[in-house]
Amino acid sequence: MGHVEQITNTINMLLDGASNQFSQPDDIPLSVALDSPNIHHFLVAVQSARPVDAAGNPWSASYVYDSGNLVLNMLYNLMLEATGRLQKCRLYEMCSNKAFRATVSYLIVRDLVHEKVFAKALETLGVNWGKALPVPRINTDKMPEVKDLERKNLHNIMWTFANNGETNGMAKIFKGDSPFDDGGTLEVIDGFPEGAEIPLFPESPPEFSPGLDTELKKLAQQVQIAG
Ligand SMILES: [Fe+2]
Question: What ranges do the domains of the chain cover?
Answer without folding.
Answer: 66-196
